[in-house]
Amino acid sequence: MKTASKPASRKSATAHFPKIGQIAYEGPATKNPLAFRHYNPDEVFDGKPLSEHLRFSVAYWHSFRGTGADPFGSGTITRKWEQGKDEISVAKKRMDAAFEFFQKLQSPFWAFHDRDIAPEGRTLAQSNKNLDKLVAHAKALQKATGVKLLWGTACLFTNPRYMAGAATNPDAHVFAYAAAQVKKAIEVTQELGGENYVFWGGREGYDTLLNTDLKREQEHLARFMHMAVDHAKAIGFKGQFLIEPKPKEPTKHQYDFDVASGIAFLRTFGLEKHFKFNIETNHATLAGHTFSHEIEVAASQGLLGSIDANAGDVLLGWDTDQFNTDVRELTLAMVSILRAGGLGSGGLNFDAKLRRQSIDLDDLFHAHIGGMDSYALAFKIARQILADGQLDAFVAERYSSYDGGYGAEIESGKATFKSLEKLVLGKLGEPKLRSGKQELLENLISSYLHG
């Protein structure tokens, strides 16, 4: 089986990272900042290498289109491969640099928006023509390197035409344009062997209810999703459709606020068989939830699809998209992911960007190495927690009263208010208080983290 750790069959004529070789696993004791301490892609767990368990992916938009700009200042990051007057040539050179990076990082996957990889033209036809050129280039690079596409998507939020949304736009002309753009994006994702396709409603929401027909907008969004499902069937696209929830920013309220509201939306409009969720850590916290909470809500309904692996700053109330190195948070997330049976065709996509002051080429490596090592360590700790069984045993015992007798009748639907009243007035009486043992369990988790 070919893995991303194997050498590439083709070398780029011009090395864009000439001073950096392939990042190797050197173990926890290494002092080399350009080496993995915990991520060994070839280490085998349950018959599969770690690279197949974690399925890391590099986000093209942040890593190769990010400039370090923020709401208060212009870009700080410049790259040599961005130089040139011809947009297509620059885009191809940028993509060459990206695939060199993927190889050296040993990342088995990448992900992109359509407008990340190809410049937008003055017309949709020109945009599609540009996209076709870059898709052909990407296809050749994927074949040469063995790097695969985790997912593709369409950028329906940066162009001014989408200022009031895409599928939820009050103008049917904009809806039609967005539909045409997504049609093409699904097709190129299929062309590149993408294993998923993501819908992120960047502006599918509202800023004020004063000018919004909320019911109609949600119905339009559902109609858009059904059209996407129909087109996927028509062209034979077998990838998994994913929804990525986010509560706010740039709109005040987005319709895919969190996983729970997303589930309600899917079930209301008969879409639940066609979609799963791509859960982003930073979006979870912006919604007032923990990362683990969103994973558990999706997994409880069999709708866990993929992860955008990042984090927000606890002191900032916006989407900072930082690389996550919080091993405790990631361990709890990995416990939930492993309990759910893993991510299937999904993966851990680093939807994260360098800080504004991190302008050197090696900063891009340091950031991803830290994220990959942190997730790998969390994976190993989570496996140990689940194998030891203490946490699961406590939870099972806490709910054991539902395993038989009247508790089982409650769960099966046989119990009634009348039957339960009879029990309480008779032999049951007043319930005894039982400790939730939260501090004990937190100490248990700490014992795995710190030894």
TrEMBL record:
Cofactor note: Binds 2 magnesium ions per subunit.
Organism ancestry: Bacteria, Pseudomonadati, Verrucomicrobiota, Opitutia, Opitutales
Reaction catalysis annotation: alpha-D-xylose = alpha-D-xylulofuranose
Name of the featured protein: Xylose isomerase
InterPro entries referenced in this protein's UniProt entry, alphabetically: Xyl_isomerase-like_sf (IPR036237), Xyl_isomerase-like_TIM-brl (IPR013022), Xylose_isom_bac (IPR013452), Xylose_isomerase (IPR001998)
Predominant location: cytoplasm
GO annotation, cellular component aspect: cytoplasm
Record-annotated active site: H113, D116
Record family assignment: Belongs to the xylose isomerase family.
Keywords associated with the record: Carbohydrate metabolism, Cytoplasm, Isomerase, Magnesium, Metal-binding, Xylose metabolism
Organism, scientific name: Cephaloticoccus primus
GO BP term, example: D-xylose metabolic process
Pfam families: AP_endonuc_2
